[in-house]
Amino acid sequence: MEPFILVNFKTYLESTGIRAVELSRKIEQVSKKTNVKLGVAPQFCDIERVARSVSLPVFSQHLDPVTPGAFTGHVLAASLKEAGAAGTIINHSERMLRLHDIEIVIGKAREAGLMTVVCAGTAALAASAALLEPDMVAIEPPELIGSGRAVSKEKPEIVSDSVAKIRSVNGKVRVLCGAGISSGEDVYAALKLGAEGVLVASGIVKAADPESVLMDFCQAVRRIM
Amino acid sequence: MEPFILVNFKTYLESTGIRAVELSRKIEQVSKKTNVKLGVAPQFCDIERVARSVSLPVFSQHLDPVTPGAFTGHVLAASLKEAGAAGTIINHSERMLRLHDIEIVIGKAREAGLMTVVCAGTAALAASAALLEPDMVAIEPPELIGSGRAVSKEKPEIVSDSVAKIRSVNGKVRVLCGAGISSGEDVYAALKLGAEGVLVASGIVKAADPESVLMDFCQAVRRIM
Amino acid sequence: MEPFILVNFKTYLESTGIRAVELSRKIEQVSKKTNVKLGVAPQFCDIERVARSVSLPVFSQHLDPVTPGAFTGHVLAASLKEAGAAGTIINHSERMLRLHDIEIVIGKAREAGLMTVVCAGTAALAASAALLEPDMVAIEPPELIGSGRAVSKEKPEIVSDSVAKIRSVNGKVRVLCGAGISSGEDVYAALKLGAEGVLVASGIVKAADPESVLMDFCQAVRRIM
Amino acid sequence: MEPFILVNFKTYLESTGIRAVELSRKIEQVSKKTNVKLGVAPQFCDIERVARSVSLPVFSQHLDPVTPGAFTGHVLAASLKEAGAAGTIINHSERMLRLHDIEIVIGKAREAGLMTVVCAGTAALAASAALLEPDMVAIEPPELIGSGRAVSKEKPEIVSDSVAKIRSVNGKVRVLCGAGISSGEDVYAALKLGAEGVLVASGIVKAADPESVLMDFCQAVRRIM
User: Fold this and answer.
1) pLDDT band for position A156 (50/70/90)?
2) What values do phi and psi take at A139, rounded to 5?
3) Which residues in chain A have their CB less than 8 angstroms from residue B42's CB?
4) Given phi > 0 = left and psi -120 to 50 = alpha, else beta, which region is A193?
5) Residues in chain D whose beta carbon is closer than 8 A to a beta carbon of chain B?
6) Using the 8-state DSSP alphabet, how is residue B140 labeled?
7) Mean pLDDT of D106-115
8) Which one of A123, B51, C119, C177 is most buried, by most CB atoms within 10 A?
């Protein structure tokens, strides 16, 4: 499976508003140059203008288990879809959901034609999530998120163990890994361990030169492909 | 104080995506024709394109108590501001906050230059909210929301009691009332009871002809002004 | 595996305080007469005196993902254990947990020597829960809870499908089923479908004669054993 | 008003199970010796046996906004009352509630004959809480909780400002203060600033000799009375 790199913009000021659009354009340039599949996950308010501005797949950072109707302040699948989103992150460690709601949200996303990336912090949780049949599962040990210490190098066994556990219950789901990924080496290690992509945030968004770091990521991908 | 009517789009399909823009344009027309101050509160993903399309004040339906940073899936004040929002609803009965977070969110909104409308379901809660010094407080008895039975006619004492309780602790906050408002008569009754505006949702969004219902609302406002 | 019937006392007044003790004594009598394995799950405040009064295994209705320390108002595993609890229900549909916390709570319970029953509303969620290796999983479709319409008769395929899905990922976990169980026939149907016990609440607690209904349950169990 | 000292046992192991009873007995001795009004707030599972063992007023650490019925895993007012509780802490910074639920919980407690202590972290929040008419409000700046640095000495203006703000909206509510209180001097300072009691946790529970620290607290109270 061709690897996928998803850049989570979180609520960093560096990737808010017009800067979300600008960063997405840089990411699109790298994707075109390297022919590596990249995606972006801006904040809700920025989804529409990012989707209008670039041809990358745009993900939401969250989706609520709600239907159209009286749900003030919630994120509706149809709203993401109409804004141009291609998918959504679910259950990120900074926005965790109840087990029950994860199943509902995956269903709502699928009905709306949105891809799903469910995050999980341990191998067992990743396998549990995989049983609910999302499109992708992302392993992210919370203690490494934003640490600059890459899961694929600090805790390689979590990645390989997760891949094994997930594969024993779901042969189709794409496995991403994240947390602390900040160099091409980290990406290369992740793919070697069986991941089929990475979820990255501060490693790109807070980088002095996001474009060159991402270029480094993509060259690591090319070494594998 | 010149009355203010805020239309909450909730997650109704009738007010999602391009239909949020279209409905906002109709609302803008009514505002221009009647010279009554109107505002709209679309879903997060629609704030930016609505704000780009109309000159009405655009409100978010919710704001999270977060700072710029690692808060995946949350709503940041700076993101609302950059999208063109003029303010935000807080603590709607469909998206209630902890007391502690209401104070934080009001502070975050103020710092970002966003107006705040804090919702409350009872007179005592409305006064509690008013002590935290938002720009507006909206009384909405949850049992009447979406009922078609207007708070200003079904439970006028809640409105007058709330106005009195709020005024005893805060002389400046604007008092809105909501829940079940669906005709000019309901609006007139609300203003007569001391409200300085209304919060309305299904009464406009789900109306067969939103423009004509809103025109009826605005004529009621003109009778008072 | 010898079937197990767990009676959830919820927050019914009929099973609060001294009535929790009295009901537990009746349940103990039936267990002794029929030699069927029964357990009770009273409210937190009643666990200690119920555990002191009867020899049945006593379960908590919930456990929080906390450690000893500064967690005012939370339920600590060591506190349940010292009160005499033998185990705990986790993720009941009326007290659902985040996926992440389910894994933590199962671990905390195990360390404290408490058995775990994780509830789930669908077959897929039950299998997800089973992957986290609790002692028992209970299938309870939320729409049938308290309905008087038994899951084992109304939706037998949910029970058999859950048993199959759970068994494909975990060969050891005990599978209970619940929701609407109110007669020996319902219990018999559940066991025939592969369940190894039932979780019951209003069917016993709110019965005019709890003892005789439970006797009926136990006779159904004896027919299978 | 005669000062009141409430000792919150949190989920400390030092105050769990039989040690909750033992600590309560020590606290009762100090209360008898000094004639100062003391109370204890053990964990849910310990309320009944503590209430049976001592004549001190026993508080719960939390109460849920639920009615008798299908609320598995929640804390019911009637359950606390039957276990012998005299009151409950509400909205502790480690177990915060939505504004809406604070009003409901105060009402449920009052109906059940339970006293209420609502916690708040700032002067404005304390006044908001006081408007909902609990029996007591406790000011506890979260940043000082468990710090060993007493609010009454580190941030005396928070205490005096809170007392003033609370008094401007509610003349009857008892004002406690907490966070970091660990000596008689801290208690004396708090009472001098207008507080009518203190809420203390680690300062007593984790003390090498809880009895002697509490004796020091009570002597400070006697200096004022």
Assistant:
1) confident
2) -85, 120
3) none
4) alpha
5) 91, 93, 96-100, 102-103, 120-122, 124-125, 127-129, 131-133, 169
6) -
7) 98
8) C177
> Pick from A124, A99, A65: which is nearest to C121 by CA?
A99
- Known catalytic residue at D111: no
Q: What is the mean pLDDT of residues B175-192?
A: 91
Largest interatomic CA distance in chain B: 50
Is pLDDT above 80 for B146? no
pLDDT recorded at residue A47: 98
Checking if the pLDDT of A146 tops 80, the result is no
Give chain C's largest Cα–Cα span. 50
Find the Cα–Cα–Cα–Cα dihedral D146, D148, D153, D156, rounded to 10°: -10
In this complex, whether C and A touch, counting 3 or more CB pairs under 8 angstroms, is yes
Q: Give the H or E element holding residue D166.
A: helix D156-169
Rounded to the nearest angstrom, the minimum Cα separation between C19 and chain A is 33
Q: Which of A90, A194, A178 is nearest to A134 (CA)?
A: A90
In sequence order, what DSSP letters do the residues of B168-200 get, joined into one string?
HH-SS-EEEEESS--SHHHHHHHHHTT-SEEEE
CB contact at 8 A, B75 and B64: yes
Range of the domain at B119: 4-224
Domain count, chain B: 1
Residue A21, CA distances (Å) to A15, C88, C112 in order: 8, 49, 51
Cβ–Cβ < 8 Å for A118, A134: yes
DSSP string spanning A195-220?
A: -SEEEESHHHHTSSSHHHHHHHHHHH
Chain C meets chain D (3+ C-beta pairs below 8 A): yes
pLDDT at A152: 80
CA distance B28 to B10: 18
Q: Is residue A222 part of a domain?
A: no
Mutate to test the interface with D, among C11, C12, C53, C143 (most CBs of D within 10 A): C11
| Nearest-angstrom CA–CA distance, B199 and B206 | 14
Q: Which residues of C are less than 8 Å from A169 in CB distance?
A: 131, 168-169
How far is Cα A108 from Cα A80, in angstroms, rounded to an integer? 11
Alpha-helical runs (H) found in B54-200: 77-82, 99-112, 123-131, 151-154, 156-169, 184-192
CB contact under 8 A, D48 and C45: yes
Strands (E), chain D: 4-8, 37-41, 59-60, 87-90, 115-120, 136-139, 174-178, 197-200
More confident residue, B13 or D158: B13
What does pTM read for this prediction? 0.95
Q: Which residues contact A128 (CB under 8 A, 6 or more apart)?
A: A99, A120, C99, C128, C129, C131, C132
Determine the residue among A7, A10, A11, A140 to mutate to test chain B binding: the one whose Cβ has the most chain B Cβ atoms within 10 Å. Answer: A11
Q: Is B87 helix (H, G, I), strand (E, B) or coil?
A: strand
Q: Which pair of tokens denotes residue D122?
A: 């700032």
Catalytic-residue membership of B111: no
Output the CA–CA distances (angstroms, integers) from residue A37 to A55, A171, A177, A180, in the order listed. Answer: 11, 21, 15, 20
The domain that contains A156 carries what CATH number?
3.20.20.70
CB-CB under 8 Å, A47 with B76: no
CB-based contact A200:A221 (threshold 8 Å): no
A166 residue type, one letter: I
The mean of the pLDDT values for chain D is: 95
Chosen for mutation from C9, C44, C66 (greatest number of chain D CBs closer than 10 Å) is C44
